[in-house]
Amino acid sequence: MNWFWIGLCLAALAACLGLWVVGGPWVAARGEAGIRPPAFWWPWVLALAPWCAPFVTWRMRRALQVWGPRAGLASHWEVERWLAACVLAGGCGAALAGAAALMGNVPARIGIVSALAGAGLGFIWPDRILRRRAAGRRLRMMRELPFMLDLLTLCVEAGLSLPAALHQVAGHAPEGPLRQSLREAAALERTGMERSRWLQRWAEQADVPGVRNLVSALAQADRLGMSLGPLLRAQAERQRSERFLRAEKLALEAPVRMLFPMVLCIFPCTFLVIGFPVAVKLLDAGF
Fold it and tell me: SS3 of 30, please?
């Protein structure tokens, strides 16, 4: 019976692969021209998106509007397509959990529960990836901010105005998520948006405390007519000291983080290596 279910699962997998090979180019051709599919499952996302559109809520739209720019999500990821990706991941999770339950010859009730659990975990998996990517991107921005502030200070002290200095930094700073977010925000100025508004938009999308402090300081300096050179230099020094404090905090947390794997993995193996010869000698002695 187990071989029957294994063969059935393999046949279903082969059918899915055949459908993808045959129907993938046709579905991809219906998408927008000039957009390169991010992965082999992109045709399936495009196919499921129209069916998922009626189930999109305003909470989903708001969540993707907030977390999408923070994670650097591409512009062609609409809410319907994101929901389709979640549904596709949920289906894959249910299929894998159900196949494992069938191969394990477990009761039908446990198999159904396993499939439902796999579907739930698969459905939330893209959201977890998005938030984790946003957190990693945020850490990279925090590391890149001091150097970008140094470049901005250099441009301002060289005689450039603040808008020109921001555009120079957005165009010539080292490649990274902070430069990308600043370049996308600075592009809004060409649409007629005021500098204060697109700077505020940049701070909201970056979600970095240092960027928020910089935007607030620039707005205050603009209102009070303060000199920007000393202000930007002080901001750069502050961000550099905060980066050092974060590194020092992580270094102090390292022994605590190493304690769990040492207790769980290293110590039992050490005790086993030490205690096995002793146990053998005791058994040979008649204990």
Answer: coil
Would you tell me the crossing angle of helices 79-103 and 58-71 to the nearest 10 degrees? 90
**Angstrom distance (rounded) from CA 283 to CA 279:** 6
**Is the Cα torsion angle 209, 212, 216, 217 positive or negative in sign?**
positive
What is the domain extent for residue 71?
A: 2-7+40-136
Residue 121, classified by CB atoms within 10 Å of its CB into exposed (0-12), middle (13-18) or buried (19+), is middle
Locate tokens 């301002």: which residue? 156
Residue type, 284: D
Q: What domain count does the chain have?
A: 2
- Tell me how far apart the alpha carbons of residues 75 and 73 are, in angstroms, rounded to a whole number: 7
Residue 129 contacts by C-beta under 8 Å, 6 or more apart in sequence? none
Tokens linked to 149: 């502030």
pLDDT at 161 over 70: yes
* Cβ count near 183 (within 10 Å): 16
CB of 48 closer than 8 Å to CB of 42: no
Q: What is the pLDDT of residue 37?
A: 47
Give percent of the chain with pLDDT exceeding 70.
85
Q: Is 270 part of a structural domain of the chain?
A: no
d(CA 113, CA 118): 9
253 within some domain: no
Q: What is the pLDDT of residues 63-86, one digit of tens each?
A: 887 787 778 777 677 888 888 888
